[in-house]
From TrEMBL:
Lineage: Archaea, Methanobacteriati, Methanobacteriota, Stenosarchaea group, Methanomicrobia
Domain of life: Archaea
Annotated protein name in UniProt: Cupin type-2 domain-containing protein
InterPro entries recorded: Cupin_2, PKS_Associated_Protein, RmlC-like_jellyroll, RmlC_Cupin_sf
Cupin type-2 domain segment(s): 39-106
Amino acid sequence: MMHNRSNISSYVTKDGSRIWELFHPGSSPVAGFSVAEARVDAGQETVAHVHHRSQEVYYILEGCGEMSLGGDALAVIQGDAILILPGKRHNIKNTGVGALRILCICSPPYAHEDTGTGL
């Protein structure tokens, strides 16, 4: 099975990023994980949030930014992979001039109900 982002509708998640779900149990014959591409425009940032059950990996495809991960500030660039454990508050800000593109892998799969944005 193969998908191309250009053939997938995007939507905005609870953290404010625009994503394209490449593989998700709701739309693909996969179980136990999801894969999406997220985009954060220049000068923008996601809302700080946690995933109560899911662990997540951000893989920076393009751009640069600053990530807050459990209170730590991390400068991120293309090629960086960041592990986000359940319950770890995080957000990312695009500090570059172009789009920040991130491959997001979640296990269990991403779900709005699993995402908390309240401080």
